[in-house]
Design the sequence.
């Protein structure tokens, strides 16, 4: 169980800090929720305490892991699937996995595709989401500013 003040990562929303634990009643059943302030986007998310594992919530990575991830960006493999729906489904599964290396692969492949052919609205949103997830967790792991981390992420992915 996490505590108020813990830094956690949500697979679809990125990194945040647990601000409080709140009890809410839904359908006559009381349930405890973590109230998480996300680091990017000024969003607050409520996550059921009992479902953190099934959702994929985890502690954020350590600074050393963030540095290792950033160094790995130039060597990440990029999927060149031509079928839009298959590519979108695979990219969504990678993001939902919560694995930052897979999220970086999605961002890198979409950035590369954007440079060559442009992206559909759905893929542009997916790219924005993947970048936000990466930036928010690396920001928190390295205690760095958004602009600094965004530059590191973009520079590493574009190589």
Sequence:
């Amino acid at each position: 169980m996490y505590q108020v003040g813990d830094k956690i990562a949500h697979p679809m929303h990125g990194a945040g800090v647990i601000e409080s634990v709140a009890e809410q009643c839904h359908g006559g059943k009381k349930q405890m929720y973590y109230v998480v302030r996300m680091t990017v986007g000024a969003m607050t998310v409520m996550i059921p305490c009992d479902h953190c594992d099934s959702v994929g919530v985890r502690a954020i990575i350590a600074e050393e892991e963030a540095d290792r991830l950033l160094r790995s960006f130039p060597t990440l493999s990029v999927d060149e699937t031509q079928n839009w729906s298959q590519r979108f489904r695979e990219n969504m599964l990678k993001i939902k996995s919560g694995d930052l290396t897979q999220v970086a692969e999605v961002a890198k492949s979409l950035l590369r595709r954007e440079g060559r052919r442009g992206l559909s609205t759905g893929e542009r949103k997916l790219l924005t989401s993947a970048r936000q997830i990466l930036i928010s967790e690396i920001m928190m792991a390295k205690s760095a500013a958004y602009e600094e981390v965004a530059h590191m992420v973009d520079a590493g992915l574009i190589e």
